[in-house]
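Cont'd.
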Amino acid sequence: MTKTLRNLPGHLVLVVACLAALFPIYWTVLTSVKSRVDIFAQPPTFWASDPTWDNYAQVLADPEFVRAALVTIVVTLASTVLATFAGALAAYGLVRRGRFGGRGSFDGMLILIRALPGIVLAVPLYKIVVDLGVYDSPVALVVVYAAINLPFAVWLMTGFVQGVPYELEEAARVDGANQAGVLLRVVLPLIGPGLAATTIFVALMTWNEFLIPLVLADRSAKTLPVYVGGFVTSRVINWGGMAAAASIAIVPIALLTSLVQRNLVRGLSSGAIKD
Amino acid sequence: MTASLTTPAPGRVRSDAPRGGASVRARRRLSVHATYLLPAWLLVAAVVVVPLGLSVWMSLHNETMLRSGRFIGLENYTDVLTGDFWPALGITLVFSLAAIAVQVPIGLGLAMVLNRELRGTQLYRSVLLLPMLLTPVAVGLMWRLMLNADTGVINGVAGMLHLPALNWLGDRTLAVVSVVLVDAWQNIPFVMLLSLAGLQSLPDAPLEAAAVDGATGWQSFWHITLPMLTPVLGVVVMIRIIESIKLFDIIYILTQGGPGTATQNLSLLNYRVGFSFMNTGQAAALGIVICVVLIPVFWLQKKVNEQ
């Protein structure tokens, strides 16, 4: 009994914090199923007296939304594979050879990508993409996203590659394996979980990217965040449609991350904490 | 893949690197290892090296999005430095300092409570992490919905409590407060997560010893936990400074830099110059200026990487 009492303030803090974290999400989903009358009701109503799917029907029936969803899925998949592949290879090269010519400049480039506001690169990239004739093309998005997420992939994968004992690779070489065999049969299985974690993170960041598609795409390569963001630029805001679009954008993320939360927590924490 | 693509430096091989046999063989393998960086270098060249080089060239010409320009020397730079640059730099710093001042104490406080492992901690943690995983654009929309002066739930609740309705996104000061608030809502979970991981990695012995010596909770936090946690908190602060300086999505959705230029940070200003005013030459010059003023931030990122 005394223990419960002592823990009460702690629970209180956590419950209040959880409410603060959940309420905006609840309110958005609620607004998306409210009728027009309920949306503008004053004082506000905290439940939907007459829930409607009209807002979702309207968004899902919009061909622009469907195309944006498809583009986002395809671009996220392709770019994630590219960034994780290049990042894992680079991490392997960096770990196995601590220093060689160009190491410093490579690190410098990764720092630039991480710390520079994306818009600084987006201005010249726009010109390049237009000149190359790939403006509004998913291909341009795939390459640019992959480069932007590369530092994160390298950083995460470095930790996992460091966990592979070099003796194992040497042993495989003594047994006659060539470098490709060593990579595929020795290194890859050991860094598998790391690759999976990196893939999830990179996919999450790629899915959420807004500035790059805003600048480098218009109609045919418009992504979901840009489509969803488009609801505020019109003069009269369609609150119900906007809430429905926002709900659609957050649901896949919420599902995915609840499935992989253990990996997520470990992966994010591993970088900052040294045993 | 050819071994000659990258030339290995004759420099010292780190002691923890694998030892080759003859130096020729070692060198050859060194360069093979360097080629593992080739795909990454190609990406970096296409998206960083070439664009930044082009930016320098663009910044010296009076080109716009619609026409190529002629060489005008440093005129774009003087225009940038006499324009909205300084207020934008100021508000960027405000957002960054506010992010640290708000997010670190709250995130660390929540981590301390979670670290007590009360019943249901797993569930609490899962719920508390949610905001950081949401698409920033969606977060901006959610809050724009709630902060709307006429129809938003926040003023609605204020009305029920007989508090005055505030023009959250339309008032110059409140708009800054709103951006800080929404950025905090989304990113406190990140601070909390890393702080929690840091707390869990601390040894128990010093705290137990302090408890035996009769230290109060506050004393052991101030004199033991906090000093031991400093390295982790340092990384958290540096990451949050860098990310808050880059802040774009949330501001774009909430206020688009307004009202006026009240929430126009460097990212928003550069976007506006390049893509609203279509003055690409001046936007490129601003980008180069941003690179220069962010040199201390690159140094911070270097420190983070070395951790």
